[in-house]
Write a structure and sequence with these properties.
- By secondary structure, the protein is α+β, with helices and mostly antiparallel strands.
- Among the domains are: about 1-60, Luciferase, domain 3 (Roll); about 70-160, GMP Synthetase, Chain A, domain 3; about 170-240, Orthogonal Bundle (Non-ribosomal Peptide Synthetase Peptidyl Carrier Protein, Chain A).
- About 30% of the residues lie in helices and about 20% in strands.
- It has helices at about 25-35, 80-90, 115-125, 160-165, 175-185, 205-215, 225-230, 235-240, 265-270, 295-310, and strands at about 10-15, 35, 45-55, 60-65, 70-75, 75-80, 95-100, 105-110, 135-140, 220, 240, 315-320, 325-330.
- Strands 1, 2, 3 and 4 form a 4-stranded antiparallel sheet that branches.
- Helix 5 (about 175-185) packs across helix 6 (about 205-215) and helix 5 (about 175-185) crosses helix 8 (about 235-240).
- The longest helix is centred in the middle third of the chain and has 15 residues, at about 175-185.
- The protein is extended and about 80 Å long.
Length: about 350
C-alpha cells in the first residue's frame, strides 16, 4: 500500500473488527457506504464516512468538514467541502467551514493573526469559479464544536450587521444611483451598495433582461452579457454607454420598432441550433376550462398582457443568419385570440 502524502485532504474511511455489517433493511445504502476493502483479501469492508480529513506530518488527522454538504447556488450544485479544502490550502488558515445562508456562501476560518478576508477571496478566485467564492469570510478565534468534537454549524455566528455597515458603500454618481434604484425595485432589496453582487442578491437571467430594458429608458445602453460579466453596480456603470440621439425626426408610424439590442445567452444558444424552419418553432400547452370563457374579456386580458411584457413582443432579425439581434415591437391592436 502506497503511503498517503502528508497534507493531502481526502475522505475518511473506517475499517476493522468493530465495523458494522451495514444498515438494517437498507441494502442500497449499505452497498453505497460499506464497500469492499481494496487493501485486503479477507473480504473485509470499509465504511465511507463522508468526513473530509487531512493527514498531518505527525500522523494526526485534521477534520476539515463534510463531503455530503451539497448546496445549490445560482443554479450550480456545490460541494461545501471542496471550498473548505481550498481555504485550508491557503496556508495561514488552520480550519475552515463553509455554510449557505439565504442563497449566499459564508466561510468561517481560524488561523494566523495575519488572516485577511479580502485577500483570501482574491486568492480563492484564482482557482475557483466566481459562484464558489464565499460572499463573506468570517475570521474566528475558534470554531464552535458539539459534544462529539465536530463543528457545530448551527452555532456559527450569523452575519454581523456592523460588518455589513462597514463594508457597504453607497452608489456614486447619477448612473450608479439610477442602476441601484432599478436593482432595488427588481430585486426587492431596499438598500443597494455599489459593490453588491447582482446574483448574490437574488438576480437571475430574466431580471437581467429587465435591467437592460429599464436602463435604456434612462438613456444608457447595456447588454445582458454585460450584466452577467459585470455583476456589481460599480462595474456595470463603468461599461454602460450613452444612447446615441438620432438627428432624424421621429416617425409617426406606431409600428416603428425599437432599436435592436443583443440576445440573452439562452436566446443566443437557441439561434446557434441548426433549424431549417426556425420561424415555425413553437411550444404549446393544452388547457381545459370547466366553463366557456368570455371571449371578449379573454382577448382584452391577452392584449393587456402583451402590452405589459416586452418579451411577448420580441422580434428577432439577422442579415446573415449568424449575427442575430432582437427588438421590442410596439403593442398591436389587432386580435391575438383565434376562435375555431
Amino acid at each position: 500500500m502506497e503511503p498517503v502524502p502528508r497534507g493531502v485532504a481526502g475522505e475518511l474511511y473506517l475499517g476493522g473488527a468493530g465495523l458494522a455489517r451495514g444498515y438494517l433493511d437498507k441494502p442500497a445504502l449499505s452497498a453505497e457506504r460499506f464497500i469492499p476493502n481494496p487493501f485486503a483479501t479477507d473480504g473485509s469492508r470499509l465504511y465511507r464516512t463522508s468526513d473530509l480529513v487531512r493527514w498531518r506530518a505527525d500522523g494526526v488527522l485534521d477534520y476539515l468538514g463534510r463531503l455530503d454538504h451539497q448546496v445549490k447556488i445560482r443554479g450550480f450544485r456545490i460541494e461545501l467541502g471542496e471550498i473548505e479544502a481550498r481555504l485550508v490550502q491557503l496556508g495561514d488558515v488552520r480550519e475552515a467551514v463553509v455554510v449557505a445562508r439565504e442563497g449566499k456562501l459564508i466561510a468561517y476560518v481560524t488561523g494566523e493573526a495575519s488572516l485577511d478576508a479580502q485577500a483570501m477571496k482574491v486568492r480563492l478566485a484564482q482557482t475557483l469559479p466566481d459562484y464558489m467564492v464565499p460572499w463573506r469570510i468570517v475570521i474566528l478565534d475558534a470554531l464552535p464544536l458539539n459534544p462529539n468534537g465536530k463543528v457545530d454549524r448551527k452555532a456559527l455566528p450569523s452575519r454581523s450587521t456592523e460588518t455589513d455597515a462597514a463594508q457597504w458603500e453607497a452608489p456614486q454618481g447619477q448612473l450608479e444611483t439610477q442602476l441601484a434604484a432599478i436593482w432595488s425595485e427588481l430585486l426587492g432589496v431596499e438598500r443597494i451598495g455599489r459593490h453588491d453582487n447582482f446574483f448574490e442578491l437574488g438576480g437571475d437571467s430574466i431580471l437581467s433582461l429587465q435591467i437592460v430594458a429599464r436602463v435604456r429608458h434612462t438613456g444608457w445602453m447595456l447588454s445582458a452579457r454585460q450584466v452577467f460579466e459585470q455583476q456589481t453596480i460599480e462595474q456595470l456603470a463603468a461599461c454602460a454607454r450613452p444612447m446615441e440621439v438620432s438627428s432624424t425626426p421621429a416617425s409617426n408610424d406606431e409600428n416603428d420598432p425599437c432599436e435592436p439590442f443583443d440576445l440573452h445567452p439562452m436566446q443566443a444558444w437557441f439561434f446557434d441550433q441548426a433549424m431549417p424552419s426556425r420561424h415555425h418553432w413553437n411550444q404549446s400547452v393544452l388547457l381545459e376550462s370547466a366553463s366557456a370563457p368570455n371571449v371578449d374579456h379573454l382577448e382584452q386580458a391577452l392584449q393587456e398582457l402583451i402590452a405589459s411584457h416586452a418579451s411577448l413582443r420580441s422580434r428577432f432579425v439577422s442579415s446573415n443568419q449568424e449575427e442575430w439581434q432582437q427588438h421590442d415591437a410596439p403593442a398591436q391592436s389587432s386580435p391575438v385570440l383565434s376562435i375555431e
